[in-house]
Write a structure and sequence with these properties.
The structure is a single chain. 70% of the residues lie in helices and 4% in strands. The chain has a two-stranded antiparallel sheet with strand order 1-2. A two-stranded antiparallel sheet has the order 3-4. Strand 3 and strand 4 form a beta hairpin. The chain has eight helices and four strands; from the N terminus they run βααβαααββααα. It is mostly helical.
Length: 205
């Protein structure tokens, strides 16, 4: 979800307190991002198509009963009931699989992996391990990541080490420049030895 007021301020708009309150009352404080909206639409369309297909199947089944005796109808009804239950279960699994995948992608987006192959391996493992979900969120995700790091620490970027390296680079870079810096050669070239004279010539060419 995107916070409307923050996003508007990022665009350089200066809002008064009255304008902020007006936005909260008329629109709300948060809206779906484009990707979130597309996922919601895709979910609704998938469910709609599933219900439509089942309705069409039921209609065709009823037409097939016309002109048949009671025993035949009863037998075919039971067979179609089993097929309908199997289709219902399959449809339910598809919805659960999609919702779980969405939750995993949302949870993983802030993790830093050392490579694409490491991320693919992690995604494959967590998809097969099937964490429990509540309100569209993965339960125990942090514990799962910590346990995964113990088994394969090389899959994740060590953020503390990365920060230390960045800080070290900031401190050492100026020092290296100072070390490479040479004071200009000055004085009477006629009184210089050959090495000093050569440096004086190089800097004054």
């Amino acid at each position: 979800m995107l916070k409307i007021i923050i996003e508007l301020e990022k665009l350089g708009l200066e809002l008064t307190d009255e304008q902020k309150e007006s936005i909260k009352k008329s629109i709300g404080e948060e809206v779906y991002s484009k990707s979130e909206h597309e996922k919601k639409v895709e979910k609704v369309e998938t469910e709609r198509d599933g219900f439509k297909q089942r309705a069409e199947t039921a209609e065709e089944t009823l037409k097939g009963f016309e002109g048949k005796d009671f025993d035949t109808i009863t037998k075919e009804r039971d067979e179609w009931k089993k097929k309908a239950e199997a289709a219902e279960e399959d449809f339910k699994k598809q919805i659960e699989e999609r919702d779980y995948k969405d939750a995993v992608e949302e949870a993983v987006k802030d993790l830093k992996f050392t490579s694409n192959s490491a991320k693919k391996a992690f995604m494959s493992d967590i998809m097969s391990d099937r964490l429990k979900m509540k309100d569209g969120k993965l339960l125990g995700f942090s514990d799962y990541v910590e346990a995964y790091k113990k088994d394969d620490a090389s899959a994740f970027v060590d953020e503390k080490e990365e920060e230390q390296n960045n800080n070290a680079a900031l401190f050492t870079d100026p020092m290296s420049k100072d070390q490479n810096h040479q004071e200009p050669v000055t004085g009477d070239p006629n009184k210089m030895d050959f090495a000093t004279y050569k440096k004086w010539r190089e800097q004054n060419q």
